[in-house]
Design goal:
Chain B: It catalyses: adenosine(58) in tRNA + S-adenosyl-L-methionine = N(1)-methyladenosine(58) in tRNA + S-adenosyl-L-homocysteine + H(+). The complex is a heterodimer of chains A (about 400) and B (about 375). The N terminus and C terminus of chain A are likely disordered. Chain A is an alpha/beta fold. In chain B, about 35% of the residues lie in helices and about 25% in strands. The chains are: A alpha/beta (about 400), B alpha/beta (about 375).
Chain lengths: ~400, ~375
């Protein structure tokens, strides 16, 4: 394959790599804040203080670029590399807190902003007026400039919808809603469960769809996902929205059952798809009955698919009892496949492990905790980041074995 | 990649799981034997058996678990030719580099192929892995493995020193993974190999912080951005089934009894001493020896006589302890499941330095603003 061929616009694995109308896009603002906004046709995208621009400026653009807003138009920014900082003899010896250092008033700054002066010129003016700026160390000057940029810059960046980025976004936004699944734990779940293109997986996701999205992304929309949930109707997975998948792909790959319809000895109460009088009275009635029939056919088909078994893995992040879940769903797994259960608490997995190891068809249930440390690597300033997430949660992994064993002695 | 059939067939590579510490690959070759401390087997015994079965040995010495290889099992079972990458690092790198179905990936060096197998699984038949190894013998061994494992169509293995000679592809791959002693020497080559129509990613895997600093500088000089560095580990927890802790009242009662016994013993000794003194005074020194032989029986008498006075349990029971305590025999202590971090764990593998390469020129963007913000100092 040559370079021209590989440079196709649509992404591989069923994902869209360029922005189109209808996509929900993550925008990173200069202060680090991330906003999720749907890019609708003919709409104006407003990023608050940073500015606004017309949506069509973005469509057709690959994800992951940085822009500056100029009179409602976008200008791409060059990627920014780090600048080396020269050491000086400056210290904070002569800088005291609470001193009046900035004669430039808020009104003057506002006036500058209104006159359309570029962010860099406002910052320059502030530095020139700053009483103690020259006393600062070069590191401190750099921090000051960055802080001001975050405040005045009219730039932003679109975030690529990789499952890693989406997990990080949700983890920062509301980690409870994704059951505290951190990106490192999520990546371990996918690997431990041997998720691959074309595979068939049972997923129990009470994590707003993060696990379903991750498995979908990893199979590259080629294979099958059976998601078991506690909702009467198919669940809304808010995380999935950010993946911007075509609806057609989702209906082909993803099916859902709830805990009742996933029970073998339960007979779902299906609304009759035959007319009560024996004959169809109107076109509307026929459409309604057809729809009913296809819904119930689909449900029965999904049930049959589950009960036929031989799935390639089970991934669980659920609020319900994990032992019950594993016992109920592991019969539908093929031999030598993986069971992966996530929990933010250690105790439930401790009990799960203790119970599973007594049962011969679970091989080597083991409990691990994910540990991750992030570093700042600025030139001359490399150190672990000061605040960090305390734990990535716990995972239990086991291998499903068939119950029968061949004994050569008998 | 490996067999997808339900049953084991001749020519399959299987994983023989004996214990957590003893996991090994086996190429099923009819006519061959497999012997271990868990018994004697013939390879033909395994043919036709479903993957995921427990198989008993011919000589009744034990059993083994017959598993289908996965990249994760392969990492646990593979023959080490080099230091290898483990699950936590592999998973995190795959996630950060956004390696998925159809991805085109560069890896240097191949090493023992632990990362290669995982990437091949994840990208599938529509993706491609370009793997480079500068050690010829290791390259040959890895190539044999890739053929045996059915991933030779997904992986192109090249024997070359990429720091000197660069990669074999240009403007083509989605991500680059460098596990080299001097990754900074390969950064410019990596930049050349990465596609330029969308943002791409790189990861450098180095055990030492000095390597990280040099790599960061090289990445920055080459125009890579969003440079971050991580360490990731798995902390295994051991689950134990232990007796529930006893209530404090239990040990308080025990201590009280011990104290009582000690006091009882002290009083007895005083009584014995005064008795002996009386006898000594009475019979004189020549009778001393005879008196001492009587002491033990006197002690027993003492217990019988004085037991009611002290209302204490006999001295003997304090020594035996709680094993004979009737309340203990009746209600064995409840058990609880407790987990603790394994005492000896991997404390460090390598630092993972990540960066993005965002192309400067983009055919769809008309206007590209100069380095406006960066020059604003």
């Amino acid at each position: 394959m040559n370079a021209a061929e590989s440079a196709s616009v649509s992404g591989h694995g069923g994902r869209n790599d360029t922005i189109s109308f209808g996509h929900t896009v993550l925008f990173r603002l200069p202060n680090g804040e991330v906003r999720s906004i749907k890019v609708e046709k003919d709409s104006i995208i407003s990023l608050g203080r940073v500015g606004s621009f017309s949506a069509h400026e973005l469509t057709g653009q690959p994800y992951g670029f940085a822009y500056e807003i100029h009179e409602k138009k976008l200008k791409r920014l060059h990627p920014r590399t780090m600048e080396d900082i020269e050491e000086t003899d400056a210290t904070n010896e002569l800088i005291n807190d609470g001193q009046f250092v900035q004669p430039l008033t808020l009104e003057e700054i506002e006036a500058l902003k209104k006159s359309g002066v570029h962010a860099s010129d406002i910052i320059k003016a502030q530095i020139e007026q700053h009483a103690n700026y020259s006393l600062k160390t070069e590191y401190s000057k750099d921090k000051y400039r960055k802080r001001k940029e975050a405040k005045y810059s009219k730039s932003f960046e679109t975030i690529e919808p990789t499952i890693h980025n989406i997990c990080d976004y949700w983890f920062k936004k509301d980690q409870n809603r994704i059951r505290d699944i951190r990106s490192d734990s999520l990546s371990q779940m996918l690997n431990l469960a041997n998720v691959r293109p074309g595979g068939r997986y049972i997923v129990v996701d009470d994590a707003s769809g993060l696990l379903v999205s991750a498995v979908l992304d990893r199979i590259g929309c080629e294979g099958r996902i059976l998601s078991i949930n506690d909702a009467d109707s198919p669940p809304a997975y808010p995380v999935l929205t950010l993946m911007n998948y075509e609806k057609e792909i989702l209906t082909r790959v993803l099916s859902t059952l709830n805990w009742a319809t996933a029970h073998e000895n339960y007979t779902p109460l299906l609304t009759p798809s035959e007319p009560p009088s024996g004959r169809i009275r109107s076109e509307r009635q026929r459409l309604r009955l057809d729809k009913r029939k296809s819904t119930s056919d689909m449900l029965m088909g999904t049930r049959q698919e589950l009960f036929a078994g031989e799935f390639d893995g089970l991934l669980v992040a659920s609020e319900y009892d994990s032992f019950e879940i594993v016992e109920m769903l592991s019969p539908y797994l093929a031999g030598s496949t993986s069971i992966v259960v996530q929990s933010v608490f250690l105790q439930p997995l401790t009990d799960l492990q203790a119970r599973m190891r007594l049962i011969p068809h679970y091989l080597a249930p083991s409990v691990t905790e994910s540990w991750l440390r992030c570093y700042q690597v600025l030139p001359g300033r490399t150190h672990p980041t000061m605040s960090t997430s305390g734990s990535g949660g716990f995972l239990l992994h086991a291998i499903k074995m068939y119950d029968h064993s061949k004994d050569f002695l008998t | 990649m490996w067999s997808t059939n339900r049953q084991v067939a001749a020519g399959d590579v299987v994983i023989i799981w004996q214990t957590r510490e003893l996991i090994q690959p086996l190429l099923i070759t009819p006519g061959k034997d497999f012997n271990s401390r868990f018994g004697h087997y013939k390879h033909v015994d395994f043919i036709g058996i479903p993957y995921g079965s427990k198989v008993g040995s011919r000589n009744g010495k034990g059993f083994i678990h017959l598993l289908r290889p996965t990249p994760e099992l392969w990492t646990m079972a593979l023959p080490h030719r080099t230091q290898i990458l483990y699950l936590a690092d592999i998973a995190f790198i795959t996630s950060w580099l956004d390696i998925r179905r159809g991805s085109r990936v560069i890896e240097a060096g191949t090493g023992s192929g632990s990362f290669s197998h995982s990437v091949a699984r994840t990208i599938g038949s529509t993706g491609h892995l370009y793997s480079y190894e500068f050690h010829e013998a290791r390259a040959d061994k890895a190539r044999e493995e890739f053929v045996r494992h059915g991933i030779e169509d997904i992986v192109t293995l090249t024997h070359r020193n990429v720091c000197k000679d660069g990669f074999t592809v240009e403007n083509s791959v989605d991500s680059v993974f460098l596990d080299l002693p001097a990754p900074w020497d390969a950064v410019e080559h990596a930049k050349k190999a990465l596609r330029k129509d969308c943002p791409t990613r790189i990861c450098c895997f180095s055990p030492c912080i000095e390597q990280v600093l040099r790599t960061v500088n090289a990445l920055n000089d080459a125009g890579f951005t969003d440079i971050t560095m991580y360490e990731t580990l798995l902390r295994p927890h051991e689950v134990q089934h232990l007796p529930a802790p006893l209530p404090l009242s239990h040990i308080i009662d025990k201590l009280k009894k011990m104290e009582q016994n000690r006091e009882e013993k002290r009083l007895r000794q005083i009584a014995n001493a005064s008795k002996r003194k009386r006898e000594d005074d009475l019979k004189g020194l020549e009778a001393d020896k005879r008196a001492r032989t009587e002491e033990s029986s006197a002690l027993e008498d003492n217990n019988d006589q004085e037991g009611s006075t002290f209302q204490a349990t006999p001295l003997a029971s304090a020594n035996v302890g709680f094993a004979t305590d009737p309340s203990q025999v009746e209600a064995p202590p409840a058990k609880v499941n407790l987990a603790k971090a394994s005492p000896e764990v991997r404390g460090h593998t390598s630092y993972l330095t990540f960066a993005r390469l965002v192309p400067i020129s983009n055919p769809t963007a008309e206007n590209i603003e100069g380095d406006a913000v960066a020059t604003s100092s």
